[in-house]
Write a structure and sequence with these properties.
mainly alpha; about 0% strand; rod-shaped
């Protein structure tokens, strides 16, 4: 009888150890998931910032291109035009200079548009990869829990 009680006590201690290990593994998995989530959020914030900057630059370039296309005398008197842009416009003396500047600006706008598209695609890939990794971690944790039970 004493031997049976000791055997049961040993079994209880063994199960308590397994439970502690399972808790530790769960805590590690949660920490890993939190780390992945943090990395994803950091990456997403960087992408949002870069996208906003690119969009702002594109808007500014499109506005400058439209103003150059209009080539109206009212451009010189427009309020709100940065002095650096106004100086560049004023330095254009011929129609060919204006055309060349417009081509340069439109090429830059196209390059920024392509860069923004690439950045969006990269962000989507990163989001999917991090989401997949997070899902895999949760699945592994669930399998581990199931196998221990």
């Amino acid at each position: 009888m004493t031997q049976d009680v000791q055997q049961w006590l040993g079994e209880i201690k063994h199960l308590q150890q397994k439970l502690e290990e399972a808790h530790q593994e769960r805590d590690e998995a949660f920490a890993s998931a939190a780390n992945w989530r943090s990395l994803y959020e950091t990456e997403a914030q960087q992408r949002r910032t870069e996208t906003a900057l690119s969009q702002r630059a594109m808007v500014e370039l499109k506005a400058a291109a439209q103003k150059l296309q209009a080539s109206s005398p009212s451009i010189a008197s427009s309020a709100g035009v940065p002095t650096a842009i106004q100086a560049q416009v004023d330095s254009l003396e011929t129609l060919d200079d204006l055309r060349q500047k417009l081509i340069t600006v439109l090429i830059e706008c196209d390059r920024l548009t392509q860069s923004l598209s690439l950045e969006r695609a990269n962000h989507e890939k990163t989001r999917k990869a991090l989401t997949s990794a997070l899902g895999d971690t949760v699945d592994m944790l669930a399998k581990e829990r199931a196998s221990r039970q």
